[in-house]
Every structure is written in C-alpha cells, then in structure tokens.
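WARN  no MSA supplied for this record, continuing single-sequence
INFO  ligand: zinc ion
INFO  echoing inputs
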Amino acid sequence: MKAVDLSVGFHYNNRERMICLIKFSPSILTADFTKIGEAVDCLRSAGADMLHLDVMDGIFVPNISFGFPVVESLNKYTDLPLDVHLMIDRPHRYIERFAKAGADILGFHYEAGSPVGETLQQIKDCGIKSCLTIKPKTPADVVLPFLELCDMVLIMSVEPGFGGQAFMPNALDKIKLIRKEADNRGLTLDIQVDGGIDLNTAPLVTQAGANVLVLGNVLFSAENMEERLAEIRALTM
Ligand code: DX5
Ligand code: ZN
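INFO  complex generated
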C-alpha cells in the first residue's frame, strides 16, 4: 500500500513547489496494453498523482477490461497510488482480493447490488481508502447516508463502460450538493469526477467542488501528455 493523501498535494513545476488542491488520476483504459509500462512512466513524469484503473466485468457494464493480474503488475511496477474503479456486479465478493492486489483507493458502484455500508466498511477494514460511485442517472442524495464511511465519492459524468464519451453536465449539480453536505458535516471528503474531462469541463467540475479528476482521452489523444496535463492543471488552480 502506498501513502495516499488526497486532500492537499504538492507538485513540482519549474523546480518550485506549489500547493495543489486538485489531483489528477489518469485512466489507462485506452492505453496500448503492450506498452503499458511506457504509458505509466510517461504519466508519472507528466505529473499524474495516481493511476485510475477501470475494472469491468461485462455484466455491470457492457464491456470487459482487466482484473487482478493487471492491478498486481502495476502495483509492482509503479509507486503511483492505484485508484481502482470497480464496474463489476456485486463487488463485495472481491474487495479483499483487490486490496491484496494493490489497490490504494477502491471504489464500487451504488447500483452494483452490494450492501453499500457494509462494503464501504469492508474496504476500510483492509486499510485502504473507500470510494462510493454513482452513475449519471442516479441522484446524488443516495450517497448522503454513507458519507461518513467514504474517503471519496465518485460522480460519473458519462455512462460507465467506455472512454472517450461526452461529459454529461448534470454531474455539476451533484458535485455541488455533495460538497455542500460534506462541508456542513465538517468532512474532508474527496469528490472525484470521471468521464469526458477536457480543457473545457475540468474548470467547471473543480469550480463545482470536485478535487480529483479522472483523465482518459484528453491525455491519450494528446501529442504531449506532459504539456496537456500542465494545461489542465493551470486551468484548475
Ligand atoms: C468509463 C471509465 C472512465 C473513462 C475515462 O467507464 O470509468 O475512467 O475511461 O475516460 P475519458 O476521460 O476518455 O472519458
Ligand atoms: Zn473510471
């Protein structure tokens, strides 16, 4: 397990240490898996704060990606924290195994058929960070009874399953509502947003109160990932 402090981070830019409130979690979903090590090296030097790993089972979502072996290999390969986004049916069956494989943050879907409070507690009992995730059509208030058990809440801004989709703006009001409620309760909750984040949408979600941004297509379509990430960072400071 690697140290993950999601709340406030430091980033070196032009040799100066700057406080960064926003963290970036690149998704390797659209990477070339024969060159995954190179992609991770590139993301690390581009300034990624963690790696977002999209695990899909073909049942909860209409796509299949990867599972334990990829998480295990990446855990051995990199010191970047692993932010694992489970898009699988009844995820409570696999929490311990993903923790053992090297997840530092483990998120699952509210809609996936697991007992929500118990599964969040199961993740915390493994000594890693818990994340509760909701799909675009799920109202934000379903997460409110569980906020105290969440280190992070993930608001999906696309239907889970595929990278490269367009951002759904209804995510913004959900982020605002959850941030307001967390502030009212004095919780230092991380709010992550996943799907369609680009140069236009990144500032919108951070203004709404999100502080962890998943970046897929916006980085993997760039000629220079480092420059692209720096651009996004500058827009969200
Ligand atoms: C979708 C995944 C996302 C996605 C992000 O199911 O959870 O992590 O790959 O990719 P972009 O940023 O391209 O929407
Ligand atoms: Zn994801």
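Helices lie at 36-46, 68-77, 95-101, 116-125, 171-184, 201-208, 217-220, 225-235.
INFO  checksum written, moving to next record
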